[in-house]
Design brief:
Its EC number is 5.4.99.5. By secondary structure, the protein is α/β, with parallel strands linked by helices. The chain contains 15 helices and eight strands. Strand 2, helix 4 and strand 3 form a beta-alpha-beta unit.
């Protein structure tokens, strides 16, 4: 899979002067709904009309898609609007039906990417296809598994390829539905800079009011496009209502996004600088989040010390931490002076938290 430039030919051939946009409802619900959304999106930046036909649900009993009938609705939408179409496939039977209905872009979902058996089945069914095939990251943060999906498709003589970053599942509660773990996408981008990289802010956030910020971060990191779930009546959507936006909102999002273009040396410099700063912003946000978690643990320690009437400052423990952090910092190229200043500040904040609890 050395020639990633070959993989992005399909994207370059679209001749877009803006990021690629794939949009449409989480699920195709009715013919009227699909056609309404298609007509609302046809004169916008959207190139591919997406709709879930088969919906893999975490637990049974929820709406699992209308099935093959929805493919006819996508076909009709394409005939009426000229938009290209896209849907998710999870097995060989889905592939066969999607190809029979001339769907232009197929993607493999996060739950399917985790299984090499499923990906291989889909790759075998698609062997030699000229359709665009995108692979969503697996639900767990495993870059090798993600790349493995692309390699299996490439080995089946499928050259129009790309990846979708939709975030990673976690047991821990955060503001995201799926934690972005941007560093994995950045690492993939560094390994294969010409492999089209699409962001799915709908699934990362799970909330429509966060979509713009995540989409902007993706563009700052030089992503090639966005997949945004769009519904004419999102509050009453049959699946994932909270993360879908209206066509009008999508148009406004695309207007408000800041998009850098590489047209000369200065623009290339600014683009690279912007990417690096975006990476720093992501890491800084992670640092604040981690420090917040650390202080919550300090609060719990303070509560225990209060119950046992133990002093806040434990010098032996503090010296052990400091010595270990200095050594680990040196391995990461960080000076002893910096480590001392940083951990003294962290330690002082921890003491302040615990003293507040003891005095309460």
């Amino acid at each position: 899979m050395e020639n990633s430039k070959e993989m992005r030919g399909w994207l370059d051939n679209l001749g877009l002067d803006h990021p690629l946009v794939i949009a449409g409802p989480c699920s195709a619900e009715t013919e009227e709904q699909v056609l309404k959304i298609a007509h609302d999106l046809k004169d916008t930046d959207v190139t591919y009309l997406r709709a879930g036909i088969w919906k893999p649900r975490t637990r049974p009993g929820n709406f699992e898609g209308v099935g093959a009938l929805g493919l006819k609705w996508l076909q009709k939408a394409k005939e009426e609007t000229g938009m290209l179409t896209a849907t998710e496939v999870a097995n060989a039977a889905h592939v066969k039906l999607a190809l029979e209905h001339d769907i232009d872009l197929l993607w493999i979902g996060a739950r399917s990417t985790v299984s090499p058996f499923i990906v291989q089945e889909i790759a075998d069914a698609l062997k030699g296809t000229d359709k665009v095939v995108l692979v969503k990251n697996p639900v767990n943060p495993d870059l090798s598994l993600w790349l493995g999906g692309i390699e299996r498709l490439y080995s089946s003589d499928i050259k129009k390829l790309g990846v979708i970053h939709r975030g990673f599942s976690t047991y821990e509660k955060t503001k995201y539905r799926n934690i972005p773990e941007w560093q994995l996408a950045i690492e993939l981008q560094n390994k294969f800079p010409d492999l089209p990289l699409i962001c799915d802010p709908s699934h990362i956030t799970g909330k429509r009011d966060m979509i713009f910020d995540v989409a902007q971060t993706a563009l700052d990191l030089n992503f090639d496009g966005l997949m945004i779930e769009t519904h004419n009546d999102p509050d009453n959507a049959w699946s994932d209502a909270a993360q879908q936006v209206t066509p009008d909102t999508l148009v406004q999002i695309m207007k408000d996004l800041k998009i850098r273009k590489e047209s000369d040396a200065e623009a290339e410099y600014n683009n690279k600088l912007g990417m690096l700063r975006a990476q720093i912003d992501i890491i800084d946000n992670g640092l604040i989040d981690t420090l917040g978690k650390r202080m919550k643990i300090s609060d719990e320690i303070g509560t225990l010390k209060k119950q046992k009437n133990v002093a806040v400052l434990q010098s032996k423990r503090w010296n052990e931490i400091l010595g270990r952090m200095i050594l680990e910092g040196q391995e990461k190229g960080l000076s002893e002076e910096f480590i001392l200043k940083m951990f003294k500040a962290i330690h002082q904040e921890s003491i302040n938290h615990q003293e507040k609890i003891l005095k309460a």
